[in-house]
Backbone:
């Protein structure tokens, strides 16, 4: 049987973050490079390799030990272990940096024919966990996001789409006391003024990124933030659910488990109040 690939593309090239048309677990039933044109490649450039915890990072230029990329990726691994209490991946996550967006695009067009342009993406291919990213002003944010996908695919492989994206959106923001994603918070507060209601059951039914809107990404982030920042019992519920995603063949939806602990209309109302508090916190923060 030819190997399949699992591919995530949660990064658009625009300033607004994830694109509504991003790809999730796109199984390509072909071997690596089978659809690529027969193109003679230039001699491979020298790559500088750094091992950082469970990450193996390759870049076309050396990175100083105090480079923000290395500092943030090292910090991220410690955050994931401490916050989610999942064991570190048994497989290494390969991170390949390209010197420019043009170089990443050229690589993508040869190796992953037909896949859209992105600043960064994660691929699970023949058992290997791989992140590709272009060097640029948002490279730290992009790498934090994609490495979370790699970590989850290794440590909790049955995590549902909404939670996979919600955790990646949550951890792409560097740690702070409030851990607010300002763009997502502002979007949801604006929708709330128009009568929007959070609906986790609907998010749980999403199976394809083609179904996901920018508002959905924001709501995925909001549910994760609410679980981790409202009550200790809710944070533990999230951790317990991730353990189920690690071991159970078909984990029961999180909303079903949660609703047996708390009245669901109350949970939804408290999420809305949580977002209002985050908005007030953000407005008081120094610019």
Residues:
């Amino acid at each position: 049987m030819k190997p399949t690939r699992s591919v995530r593309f949660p990064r658009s090239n625009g300033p607004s973050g994830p694109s509504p048309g991003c790809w999730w677990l796109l199984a390509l039933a072909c071997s690596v490079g089978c659809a690529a044109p027969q193109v003679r490649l230039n001699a491979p450039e020298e790559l500088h390799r750094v091992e950082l915890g469970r990450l193996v990072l390759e870049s076309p230029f050396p990175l100083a030990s105090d480079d923000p990329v290395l500092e943030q990726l090292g910090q991220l691994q410690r955050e994931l272990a401490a916050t989610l209490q999942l064991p570190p991946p048994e497989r290494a996550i390969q991170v390949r940096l390209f010197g420019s967006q043009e170089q990443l695009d050229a690589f993508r067009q040869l190796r992953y024919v037909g896949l859209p342009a992105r600043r960064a993406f994660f691929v699970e291919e023949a058992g290997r966990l791989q992140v590709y990213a272009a060097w640029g002003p948002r490279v730290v944010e992009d790498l934090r996001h994609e490495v979370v996908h790699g970590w989850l695919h290794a440590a909790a492989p049955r995590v549902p789409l909404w939670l996979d994206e919600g955790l990646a959106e949550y951890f792409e923001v560097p740690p702070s006391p409030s851990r607010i994603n300002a763009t997502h918070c502002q979007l949801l507060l604006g929708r709330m003024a128009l009568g929007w209601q959070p609906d986790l059951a609907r998010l749980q039914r999403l199976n394809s990124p083609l179904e996901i809107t920018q508002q959905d990404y924001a709501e995925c982030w909001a549910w994760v933030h609410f679980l981790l920042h409202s009550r200790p019992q809710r944070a533990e519920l999230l951790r317990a659910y991730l353990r189920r995603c690690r071991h159970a063949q078909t984990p029961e939806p999180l909303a079903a488990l949660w609703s047996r602990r708390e009245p669901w209309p109350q949970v939804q109302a408290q999420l809305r109040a949580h977002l209002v508090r985050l908005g007030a916190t953000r407005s008081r923060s120094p610019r």
Q: What stands out?
A: Residues 1-6, 9-43 have pLDDT under 50 and may be disordered. The first strand starts at residue 5 and ends at 8.
